[in-house]
Design a protein that fits this description.
By secondary structure, the chain is mostly helical. Among the domains are: 36 residues, no CATH class; 57 residues. Helix content is 57%, strand content 0%. The chain has nine helices and no strands. Helix 4 packs across helix 5, helix 6 crosses helix 7 and helix 8 packs antiparallel against helix 9. The longest helix is centred in the C-terminal third of the chain and has 30 residues. This is Myb-like domain-containing protein.
Length: 205
């Protein structure tokens, strides 16, 4: 990640005028406070934590990375994400009714969020229907009300966790390739199993 001084040393177009949008010293040119770009880790933390009713002040105080984020910069970045269709416009609203039916892609993304300890989600999946985070959380509760389906989901996740652990612990060499193949196979089979179980669960509601 380039800091202001590092970017300036590259003599990018824009000269020394801090108001020039091509000047790396201008925060608008790099999308963050004091010229620090938003990292993928910061964005994901921001996305999952705005799913709860936290204020921008709270988010600014708790966001990891010590990059000097402020409530204003957080509000600005969220607005930018919405403008670029990277985040539903109604993400922080309580809109629950009057939306299209849930798609299989949305349900699968919700399950992936649950299985990753609710620390990772792709909000772009929910942009077309303009889902709110509150609606997503309630949909997750609905999907997992089927205890038999929930057991399949969490059993599958445990199998994937063990396959990942075996891969991580295998030294480089032929055995590593075998472990990688086993991991990819477990991922593919697990996704198919959960998808079929989800469809059956919804059909029985």
């Amino acid at each position: 990640m380039a800091t202001i001084s590092q970017s300036a040393s590259n003599q990018a177009p824009g000269g020394s005028n801090p108001n020039n949008p091509n000047n790396p010293a201008n925060p608008q040119a790099t999308g963050g406070p004091r010229g620090v770009k938003w990292t993928e880790e910061e964005e994901m933390w921001l996305i999952v934590n705005t799913m709860d009713n936290h204020t921008n002040d709270w988010l600014a105080q708790h966001i990891p990375g010590n990059r000097g984020r402020t409530s204003n910069s957080i509000a600005s970045h969220l607005a930018e994400m919405r403008a670029k269709n990277k985040l539903p416009r109604g993400w922080r609203w309580g809109n629950l009714n009057g939306r299209p039916n849930w798609t299989l892609e949305e349900d699968e993304e919700i399950l992936d969020w649950v299985l990753h300890n609710r620390q990772r989600i792709d909000p772009e999946v929910f942009v077309p229907a303009d889902r709110s985070a509150e609606a997503i959380k309630r949909r997750a509760e609905f999907l997992l009300e089927d205890l038999q389906f929930a057991k399949i989901v969490f059993d599958t996740e445990e199998q994937l966790r063990l396959a990942q652990l075996r891969y991580d612990m295998t030294p480089d060499g032929p055995e590593k390739l075998t472990a990688e193949f086993a991991l990819r196979n477990a991922e593919g089979n697990g996704q198919q199993l959960v998808r079929q179980a989800l469809q059956q669960s919804l059909a029985n509601r």
